[in-house]
Design brief:
Blueprint (H helix, E strand, L loop, with lengths): L6 E3 L5 E3 L16 H9 L2 H16 L11 H28 L27 H29 L8 H29 L3 H12 L14 H8 L4 H4 L4 H14 L9 E3 L5 E3 L3 H9 L12 H5 L7 H28 L1
Antiparallel strand pairs: 1-2, 3-4
Helix pairs in contact: 2-9, 3-4, 4-7, 4-9, 5-9
Bound molecules: zinc ion (2 copies).
One zinc ion binds next to helix 6.
Amino acid sequence: MDDLKFGTRDKRGNWTPHKPLEIAPFWTGKFSSMGAWLVGYIWPHNTIFMAVTLAYWFLVLPDFEVMKTFSWDWMLWLHAVNSAGIFLLYGSVELFYYVKRKQGTRFKYNHKFPAENPSDVFWFKSQNIDNFLRTFLISIPLWTLVESAVLWAFANGYGIWLSPEDHWLWLVVLVFLAPAIHEVHFFCIHWLIHQGALYRHIHSVHHNSINPSPWSSMSMHPVEATLFFAEMAWHLLIPSNPLVALFQLTSTAYGAIVGHIGFDKLEITEGQAMDSHAYTHYLHHKYFEVNYGGDGVIPLDKWFGTWHDGTKDADERMKERFRKKKERANARKAGQIAAE
Ligand SMILES: [Zn+2]
Ligand SMILES: [Zn+2]
C-alpha cells in the first residue's frame, strides 16, 4: 500500500499521518461521524478482546467452587494460558512486523527498529530482550495474581455478582463502558506515576523504550504492572459480573499492545489495512508529558490540557506548556535560593 496517500515521511524516514487524532464525536458535537466511530469502537479490537474473554470463560476458568480457595493448580494453569496467549499475540506481531519486516517501514512512525539501537538502559543492552524478560518474569505473573484474587473474591461472595438473566441490559451497558473505565483508570495511575520520584523509580522502566515495539507493551516496573491490572477490581465495587470483570482485564492485558505497535496501519492484503490506533500512545512515548490516557472516549487529556493530536498546532501548545513549566520551576528554585 502507498502510505504517502495517508501521511508524510520526513527526511529521516519517520512517517506521520495526515489525519489528526480525534476524541469521541459525542464530545465535539460531530454526530455525523458517530456511526463510523461506533464501528471503530466495536471492531476489530474490542470484538477480539470479547472473543478472547469468552474463550477464557468457557475453556480456561475452573469452576467458581474450585476458585473459592487459592491453589497452585488453577493459578498456574491460568498463568500458563496468560503467558501462551501473550506469546502468541505479541510474538506474532513482533515476528511479522519487526523480525520479518513484511511491511518494511510503511506506516511506521519511527523509521528505526529497536533491534538497531543497542543501549545501556536495557538488560543485555537490548530493548527486545529486556522488554521480553520483564513481560514474562514480572508483568504476566502479576496479571495472573490480580486475576486470581478478583476471581477468588467473586467466588467467595465479595462484590455484587449480577445474574445475566435479571440484569442483562446493565451488563451489556457495562461491557460498552469497559473501555471508558480503562481510560479513566489508566489516565489516573499513569499521570500519578509520571510525577517526581514515582517517575524516576517506577515508570521510567516503561519509558526506556522511546521507540516502542510489541514487547514494550508490558515492560513495566512491578508497581506499575500491579496498578495497571488492578483495573479489574473496579468490578468488585460496581454491580457487575465476573465475565465483565474478565473482559475488563483481558482488554487491558491483551490490549496493551495497541499503543506499542509502532505502525499506524497493519497491511492485511495488497489493498487492505487495519487501523492500529497506536498513534495516541506513540506520541506519549515520544513526548512523555502528553496523552496520558487513550483515544478520547473519556477525553481527560483534552480537559487537562495534555492532549496531542499529532498536528503542528498541538506541538506548539505542548512546547508552550513545557516552557511555562520550566519557568515555574526556575522561579521556585530562585525563591528557594533567596530564602536560604
Ligand atoms: Zn507505553
Ligand atoms: Zn508514561
